[in-house]
Design brief:
The complex is a heterodimer of chains A (about 325) and B (about 575).
Chain A (H helix, E strand, L loop, with lengths): L1 H7 L2 H34 L4 H7 L5 H11 L5 H13 L13 H36 L4 H15 L2 H15 L13 H5 L2 H31 L2 H8 L4 H39 L4 H10 L3 H29 L9
Helix pairs in contact in A: 2-14, 6-7, 6-10, 6-12, 7-10, 8-10, 8-12, 10-12, 11-12, 12-13, 12-14, 13-14
Chain B lengths: L2 H7 L5 E12 L2 E13 L4 E5 L6 H9 L6 E9 L2 E2 L5 H7 L4 E4 L13 H12 L4 H14 L5 H4 L9 H13 L5 E5 L7 H18 L2 E6 L2 H7 L2 E6 L2 E7 H6 L4 H8 L11 H21 L5 E12 L2 E13 L4 E5 L6 H6 L7 E8 L2 E2 L5 H8 L2 E4 L13 H12 L8 H14 L16 H12 L6 E5 L7 H18 L2 E6 L2 H7 L2 E6 L2 E7 H6 L4 H9 L5 H19 L1
Parallel strand pairs in B: 3-8, 3-9, 6-7, 7-8, 13-18, 13-19, 16-17, 17-18
Antiparallel strand pairs in B: 1-2, 1-4, 4-5, 9-10, 11-12, 11-14, 14-15, 19-20
Helix pairs in contact in B: 4-5, 4-7, 5-7, 7-8, 8-21, 9-22, 15-16, 15-17, 16-17, 17-18, 21-22
Classes of the chains: A mainly alpha (about 325), B alpha/beta (about 575).
Chain lengths: ~325, ~575
C-alpha cells in the first residue's frame, strides 16, 4: 500500500507541506531575531559592563575606556547591535575573554557532546516512557498505575543535582558498578568510547524525561481509549492489542511529540547542572565556567545557540505533528 | 420482506434476546439499565428499538456485541446467529464482531480513526476475518466504498476521515459494517448527527443493502420518522423494559400502550406538502399577493435585516457565510429560520447582536441601525434581546447556582439603569422561575442537578430576565427528547402569548418550526431560498430546494412516509433529467 501511495501522492500535499515549512521558517527567523535583541540588551544591562567583569575591580577609568574602545563598546547601541549581528551571520561569535580562543570553535567542539547526552537521555526516556505510559493507561487506577504514578512524581519533583548525587551514592559508592565522573576527551569519538562513564549522566538527565513523558503518554492514551474510533475498531473484530498498536498508539503520540520539541531547551538547561555535577565537557559546563569567569562572549554565544536550538526543537515538533496527525495538515476538501 | 417466510428458511434468528438483564455497579449503588428484555430479529428483517434517552436501548444493543463496559453485569440469554454471546470468551467474540454481527454508530465525525486512511480502515475489517492479502483486502475495500455510494472510491480510499463529509464518513462506517457480509447489523442512531437530506440518502442506502443481502438490521433510534421509513417491526423501550412491540404500521398508527401513545403525540409532524411542481407553483403565485398586502399594513418590525452579508476570513481566504439575506420579524411574531448545517442560519441569527462580521446590507433593530451603532448603543440594544441556545448544559455556568445565572442579565444591564439589590433580584428570579413553571426553590440548585428540560427552562428564564422585545432561539430543543421538547415548545408558545415578544426561531427541524412559527425563512449555502407564511412555504413550497428538504423529512406515519419517500425519489430524478 505504501508504495502505491507514495507514487500517486498528490502534489497538493507536498505543496501544503512546503507552504507550512516556509511559514514556520519565517516565524523561526523572527523569533531568533527577537532573541538576539534581548540577549544583546541583557549584556548591556550588566552592572559595570563587561569591562569591569574582565579587568576586575582594580581597573582604572582609563583602562576601562581603552578596553571599551578596543571592543567597540563605546559605539551607539544600535551600531553595536548590528556589528554583533553582522559577525554572528559570518559565524563569528567573538573571542573568549578567558580562554583566548574563538567562541565559535569552542561551541563547535562542545555542542556535539551535549547533543549526544541530550539525545541519549531523551531517546532513552521515550523508549521507557511510551510503553510505560500506555501500560499505566491500560491498567488505570490499579496498583501498578498507582505505584508508577507515585514513582513518577518523586522523580519529577527531585532536582536533578540531588537525583545525580543519589545515583552516584547508589551506583558508585554503594554498588561500585559505575564511575561517578563523565567521559573525558576533546573529540566525540573519545566520548563514545567510554559508554560506562556515560550511564550516570544520561540517567540523571533522562529520568525526569521519563516522568514527564509517561504522564503525557498516560493521559493521552486514556483519552484516546475513550474515543469512538476505538469502539469502531473493536466492533470490526480487531483484538484489543492490535487496537492499541494500530490505532491508539499513533493518535496518543501527538501530545508527546509536541512536548518533545519544547523539551530540547529543557535538556540544555538541565545540562548545566548535570555536566557540572559529572564534569562532562559539554555546553553546560562551558556555560557554567563562563558565568564563573564573566566570559561574556562565551555566555552570549551559549545563549544564542540554546535559543536557536529551542526554535529548531519546536520546528521539528511541528513538522512531526504535521506528519503524525493528518488533521494538522488542514486542507479540508 | 415477509418475516414469516424468511423465518421458515432460517429457523435460527439472527439475534435473540431472552429476559436480558443488565446492571451497572456504581458508587451510588446498582443501576438497573435493562430489566428483562426479550425479542428476536430474523434475517432480512428490520427491527427498530425506539425510546428516549436512558431507556436502555443502546445498552441492549451493545450487549449483542459484548462491548459493554467492564462494570456491567448481565444475565439472561443473548444469541447472535445461534451463538451464545454472554458466556463467549473475548477471543470467540472477536471472531464474531465485524464478521457475524457488526455495528454502525451515531457519530460519523468521531467513529473513524483520524490518522488512518479510510480504505485501510475498511480493509482492516476484512483482514480481521478473511485470510486475504493486504492488497486484496484493499481492493475489496474500494469495492465496498463504491457499493455504499462513495464517489471516486479509489481516490477516497486514500483520504483521511477529515477530508470526507459527514454523510460520506457515515457511508464508510456502513462499509466497515458490511465488509464481511454479517448476519446482523446493529445501527445505533445511524442518522441522528446528519442533515435531513443526508439522512434520507443513508436510510435509502440501508434499505437497499438489507434487501439485497438479506441481512438482519437492528435499528436503534429516537426518531419516529426513521422508524416509519425503514423498519418492519418496532419495539418501544422505556426505563429498561419493552413496553410495546408490533409491526411498524400497527405501533405507529394504532399504539395500544399509553406510553407509546404519549411518545407519538409529542412528535411534531409536518403537514403533507403538494409535491406536484406545476400545481404548487400555480397556487404559490396566487398566494403571493396576500403576503405583500400583509407586509404593507404591519407596524414597524422589531428586526429588519436587508441584504445582509457576513464574511469570515480564514487563512487568507474569504468565506461568505451569509449572502445578501433578508429577514424581518414583526412584534409578537415567531419567525422560523430553517436550513441544514452550514446554511448560515445561526450566523444570520447572530448578526443583529453584533457578534459576527457583517460586511454588507443593513440591520435595523428596534428602529436603530445596528451597523452604525457605537459599542455602548449596541449594549443597550442587546439588553432588549433575549437569547437561548441549543445546549442547555453548556450555556449555563456549571459553578454558578441557576438563580445567579438567571439574575446575571439583571446585574449586567441593571433595572432602570440601577444595579438591583439582592432582594429585588431574588424576587425577580422567583417570578421568572414561576413563569417557566419551575418551583422557586430551584434557584439554589446547580445545573448538573437539573434535567435537560429543566435546564432549558432555566435558559428560557434567563433569556426573559430583562423582558426582551425580541427572543433569538438557536436550536433550543435539538438536544432534548421529544416529550421534553414538546413541553419546552408549549411553554415557549405560552410565554410568547403572555409577553408578546418577537421571536427568531432557528432550527434544522422543519416539523418543530411548523409547530411554532407564523412565518418561515429557508436558507441554503448562505442564501435565503424562500420566505413566507409557514403553512404556505411548508405545504406549497416554491423553491426546489425547499421541496427537496420537505420530502427528506421522514413522516412518523409509515403509510405517509412511503408516499413522501416516493416524492423524494421523483424530485431527485426530475432534478437529474
Amino acid at each position: 500500500m505504501t508504495t502505491t501511495t507514495t507514487a500517486t501522492r498528490d502534489s497538493s500535499g507536498l505543496r501544503l507541506f512546503s507552504w507550512f515549512l516556509a511559514k514556520r521558517l519565517v516565524q523561526a527567523a523572527v523569533v531568533i531575531a527577537i532573541v538576539s535583541v534581548i540577549v544583546f540588551l541583557l549584556l548591556q544591562a550588566l552592572p559595570g559592563g563587561p569591562a569591569r567583569g574582565i579587568l576586575g575591580q582594580q581597573a582604572t577609568a582609563a583602562q576601562i575606556a581603552a578596553f571599551n574602545h578596543e571592543q567597540g563598546f563605546d559605539l551607539p547601541l544600535v551600531q553595536q547591535y548590528f556589528n554583533y549581528v553582522g559577525q554572528w551571520l559570518q559565524g563569528d561569535l567573538g573571542r573568549s575573554f578567558v580562554m583566548n580562543t574563538e567562541v565559535s570553535s569552542v561551541i563547535i567542539q562542545r555542542l556535539p557532546k551535549t547533543l549526544i547526552l541530550a539525545l541519549a537521555a531523551v531517546g532513552g526516556a521515550l523508549l521507557v516512557s511510551i510503553p510505560l505510559g500506555m501500560a499505566q493507561a491500560l491498567r488505570r487506577n490499579k496498583a501498578f498505575d498507582y505505584v508508577m504514578t507515585g514513582l513518577n512524581f518523586i522523580v519529577y519533583s527531585t532536582p536533578s543535582f540531588f537525583l545525580g548525587l543519589l545515583l552516584i551514592m547508589f551506583f558508585t559508592q554503594l554498588l561500585g558498578w559505575l564511575p561517578a565522573s563523565a567521559p573525558q576527551g576533546d573529540t566525540v569519538a573519545e566520548i563514545l568510547s567510554q559508554p560506562k562513564e556515560m550511564v550516570l549522566p544520561v540517567l540523571t538527565s533522562g529520568l525526569a524525561g521519563v516522568a514527564t513523558f509517561s504522564r503525557y503518554m498516560r493521559s493521552s492514551t486514556i483519552d484516546n481509549l475513550h474515543e469512538d474510533y476505538v469502539r469502531t475498531a473493536r466492533a470490526k473484530g480487531t483484538p484489543m492489542n492490535k487496537v492499541i498498536s494500530r490505532h491508539v498508539l499513533r493518535n496518543s503520540l501527538t501530545p508527546v511529540v509536541t512536548m518533545l520539541g519544547y523539551y530540547l531547551p529543557v535538556m540544555f538547561g538541565g545540562a548545566l547542572v548535570v555536566e557540572q555535577l559529572f564534569n562532562y565537557p559539554g555546553m553546560g559546563l562551558l556555560f557554567w565556567n563562563a558565568a564563573q569567569t564573566s566570559d561574556f562572549p562565551v555566555l552570549l554565544g551559549c545563549v544564542l545557540v540554546i535559543s536557536v536550538a529551542t526554535v529548531i526543537g519546536s520546528l521539528l515538533a511541528d513538522i512531526t505533528q504535521f506528519i503524525l496527525d493528518p488533521r494538522a495538515r488542514g486542507g479540508v476538501k | 420482506m415477509s418475516t414469516t417466510a424468511i423465518a421458515e428458511n432460517h429457523p435460527v434468528p439472527a439475534l435473540k434476546f431472552e429476559n436480558l438483564v443488565v446492571d451497572f455497579k456504581t458508587k451510588n449503588g446498582t443501576v438497573n439499565a435493562v430489566r428483562g428484555v426479550s425479542f428476536s430479529v430474523a434475517r432480512g428483517e428490520v427491527l427498530a428499538v425506539v425510546g428516549e434517552s436512558g431507556s436502555g436501548k443502546t445498552i441492549t444493543s451493545l450487549t449483542a456485541m459484548a462491548l459493554l463496559p467492564s462494570t456491567a453485569r448481565t444475565s439472561g440469554v443473548v444469541e447472535v446467529d445461534g451463538h451464545d454471546v454472554l458466556n463467549a470468551s473475548e477471543s470467540d467474540m472477536g471472531s464474531k464482531r465485524g464478521n457475524v454481527v457488526s455495528m454502525v454508530f451515531q457519530e460519523p465525525m468521531t467513529a473513524l480513526n483520524p490518522s488512518m486512511k479510510v480504505g485501510k480502515q475498511v480493509a482492516e475489517a476484512i483482514l480481521n476475518h478473511r485470510g486475504v492479502s493486504k492488497t486484496e483486502a484493499l481492493k475489496r475495500a474500494v469495492a465496498l466504498l463504491e457499493k455504499v455510494g462513495i464517489p471516486d472510491p479509489v481516490v477516497k480510499a486514500r483520504n483521511y476521515p477529515h477530508q470526507l463529509s459527514g454523510g460520506q464518513r457515515q457511508r464508510v462506517v456502513i462499509a466497515i459494517a458490511l465488509a464481511c457480509e454479517p448476519t446482523l447489523i446493529i445501527a445505533d442512531e445511524p442518522t441522528t448527527a446528519l442533515d435531513v437530506t443526508v439522512q434520507a440518502e443513508i436510510l435509502e442506502l440501508l434499505r437497499n443493502l438489507v434487501q439485497q443481502t438479506n441481512t438482519a438490521l437492528l435499528l436503534i433510534t429516537h426518531n419516529m420518522g426513521v422508524v416509519a421509513d425503514l423498519s418492519d417491526r418496532v419495539a418501544v423501550m422505556n426505563a429498561g423494559k419493552i413496553v410495546e412491540t408490533g409491526t411498524t404500521v400497527q405501533v405507529l398508527t394504532a399504539p395500544t400502550q399509553p406510553y407509546t401513545q404519549a411518545l407519538l403525540a409529542a412528535v411534531p409532524t409536518l403537514p403533507e406538502a403538494k409535491w406536484d411542481t406545476v400545481i404548487a407553483e400555480e397556487r404559490a403565485r396566487i398566494s403571493c399577493p396576500e403576503d405583500a398586502v400583509k407586509e404593507s399594513t404591519t407596524v414597524a418590525p422589531v428586526l429588519d435585516m436587508r441584504g445582509v452579508c457576513v464574511d469570515y476570513t480564514s487563512g487568507g481566504r474569504k468565506l461568505r457565510a451569509v449572502d445578501t439575506a433578508d429577514l424581518k420579524i414583526n412584534p409578537g411574531e415567531i419567525v422560523g429560520l430553517v436550513g441544514e448545517s452550514g446554511s448560515g442560519k445561526s450566523t444570520l441569527g447572530r448578526a443583529p447582536l453584533g457578534l459576527v462580521p457583517v460586511t454588507g446590507g443593513s440591520i435595523t433593530l428596534f428602529g436603530g441601525n445596528v451597523l452604525k451603532a457605537s459599542t455602548r448603543e449596541i449594549r443597550t440594544l442587546r439588553s432588549r434581546i433575549g437569547i437561548i441556545f441549543q445546549d442547555p448544559g453548556g450555556s449555563l455556568d456549571p459553578r454558578m447556582i441557576v438563580g445567579d445565572s438567571i439574575a446575571e442579565p439583571l446585574v449586567m444591564h441593571g433595572i432602570n439603569g440601577k444595579r438591583p439589590s439582592r432582594s429585588v433580584r431574588e424576587t425577580r428570579v422567583a417570578e421568572l422561575l414561576e413563569a417557566v413553571r419551575l418551583p422557586a426553590t430551584n434557584a439554589r440548585r446547580y445545573p448538573h442537578e437539573l434535567s435537560g428540560g429543566q435546564r432549558q427552562r432555566i435558559g428560557l428564564a434567563r433569556a426573559l430576565a430583562l423582558a426582551p422585545e425580541l427572543l433569538i432561539a438557536d436550536e433550543p430543543t435539538s438536544a432534548l427528547d421529544v416529550s421534553v421538547q414538546d413541553e419546552v415548545l408549549t411553554l415557549l408558545l405560552e410565554l410568547q402569548n403572555e409577553h408578546g415578544f418577537g421571536c427568531l426561531f432557528i432550527s434544522h427541524d422543519l416539523a418543530v418550526v411548523h409547530s411554532v412559527s407564523q412565518r418561515v425563512t429557508v436558507m441554503q449555502s448562505g442564501k435565503v431560498i424562500e420566505s413566507g407564511e409557514t403553512s404556505r412555504v411548508l405545504q406549497l413550497p416554491e423553491a426546489s430546494y425547499t421541496r427537496h428538504l420537505l420530502a427528506s423529512v421522514p413522516s412518523p406515519n409509515p403509510l405517509l412516509q412511503r408516499q413522501r419517500r416516493e416524492a423524494r425519489l421523483a424530485l431527485l430524478s426530475s432534478k437529474d433529467s
